[in-house]
Amino acid sequence: MKTEDLIAALASRAEAVEPRALQRRYAMALGWGALGTALLMAILLGVRPDLADAARLPMFWVKLAFPAALLAGALFAVVRLSRPGARLGQVPGALLAPVLAMWLLAAIVLLGTAPGDRVELILGHSWRSCPFTIALLSVPLFGAALWAMKGLAPTRAALAGGAAGLLAGAGGALVYAMFCQEMAAPFIGIWYLLGMLIPAALGALLGPRLLRW
Amino acid sequence: MGASEDWLRDLLVRGLAGDAAAYHECLKALSAHLRAFLRRRLVRLPDEVEDLVQETLLAIHNQRHTYDAGQPLTAWIHAIARYKLVDLLRRRAVREALNDPLEDELDLFVASDTEAADARRDVARLLERLPDRQRLPIVHMKLEGLSVTETARVTGMSESAVKVGVHRGLRALAAMIRRE
User: Fold this and answer.
1) Residues A79-89 pLDDT 10s
2) Which of A6, A114, A136, B87 has CA 20 to 30 A from A168's CA?
3) Nearest CA in chain A to B150
4) Is the pTM of this model over 0.90?
5) Topology of the domain comprising B103-179
6) In 3-state terms, what secondary structure has residue A3?
7) B31 Cβ under 8 Å from any chain A Cβ
């Protein structure tokens, strides 16, 4: 086919593109994904019974703010990585900041604790299950984010898949925080982070295969 | 793209709003730009340039909903072109890892192709000794500059038969030239 013929064929199929198509696609995908994650949580775990009491503690809000900040950063990353040629700019810094803040808080808490009691602050009661439960809860969001990205044009597939995975992991952690009883900063800085990094790593591995266009 | 960037961006934005004439104009200008952009990066594979221009135009069309009007158009276009370029080179690397290297024989042929016309006549004489299934793909692809797909359509052969024909034909030609 001659290039001019191709251009004429494409131009004849140039119906108007919906404005903000990318934002709408993500809004729909993440809405359904969040619903799936919340349902999964309700079926598997339920909400912690003392949620109203816990909500009075500042640490409960810190525990929610940590994945929420990462969720926001990952959302910026995902949107930018879906557009060819868009720069990441300050996004890596925005993702690193909440992690460093949580680690700083964890270090302060650990230094103020007797050495014999530190292990309990780090391991809590649920360190074995916490990361895997977060990863499990992130599955609906993970599928939704990759589906949305698949219809767009990520040119850096591994990075884009990783960002989509981090977004899903942060969403999973945010929901899990409503169930989880752990309140120590060292625990959250390690096991919550690990739980969010599992889907991120999986996304980075799957990205180059799933996100070709 | 320089000064024409604003003009092209305006055409594309109008095209995205449904203005087919502006969109047509935009794609035409982009194809010329892409041809130059890709030719500079495919110096060793000039036959692939036009195919890749078309593939990139198609990708631009299919992904036009990912263009953000606040974003520099050049960055968007070049990222798409580069993605398609890397994709092509990766496909070729896989193919060449599976087959005998074609390049040595191609280099030999390209050298004779750029020399004087009587050198080409010599090759044409040798070509006539090849069976059709090898001669036709070589004539269409290497002398007339058609792509694999186009050659397959013209000759009625399958694409893989075209590639095999070129490969075996060039090897047979190289053997003849060594003997002469």
Assistant:
1) 999 999 999 99
2) B87
3) A1
4) no
5) Arc Repressor Mutant, subunit A (1.10.10)
6) helix
7) yes
